[in-house]
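Q:
My hope is that you can spare some time for a protein that puzzles me. I hope you can help me see how the letters and the tokens relate. Thank you; the sequence and its tokens follow:
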Amino acid sequence: MLLAGLSLTAQGQPLRIVSEAWPPYIYEENGQLRGQDYEAAAIVLQRMGVEAHWQLMPWKRCLAAFGQGRVDGIFDVFQTGARQATMLFPDEPLSEIEFVLFHNTARPHHYRRLSDLDGLKVGVSAGYWYANREFRESARFRREPAPNHAANFGKLMRNRVDLVINDHRAGHFLLDQMKLSEAIGHSPRVVSRDRLYLGLRRDAGLEAFAERFAEELRRFKAEPAYAALLARYAPLHGTHATPVEVRSP
């Protein structure tokens, strides 16, 4: 299996990985990639002896690059039935996330059930897939995509959308960076939960690599260094969402 990992760079070609910037999971700061998932994966790949070339781009471009075979992996992607046909997923996820709805504290729209969204405009991320099917397919509200997460919160502040859906940890981390933690809050009820993975090309012969990546990631997660990594990227003002799934009336 070690040889399988090394074979990825045997021809002098690094593993090509794309992702969208989504702090605190992966983002760029002062020309350097950072983030809890990125740094965990970088440590795992280093232990495996695998070189990687990383590139950040909008999520739709990530999906297009992967679909066209121009990259080997797509980072922090959700595992869905449709994607399993072309993507190979290591058994161990990089992170577990919870999507919640953020609101402007000056004009809050508290979310308890799907009917609370009637007639509202919700800022979503272009190309994102949301695990809650009722939310994903409901005609009760309008969806307005934004080019990035910061743009979504900017639209919320300018009253161009009523709510924004984002992972609660990522949302509050970004709000801390934007100095909007007092101006924007979130409803505590969870819209959906999901897991983030490293998705690999299924036709690239990476099965052994995926298996070893999962093993090394599980090993790293059991170490004190991983707990320190999570603590370093914890949002300053964010709170955990209430672990209750939203039901339609």
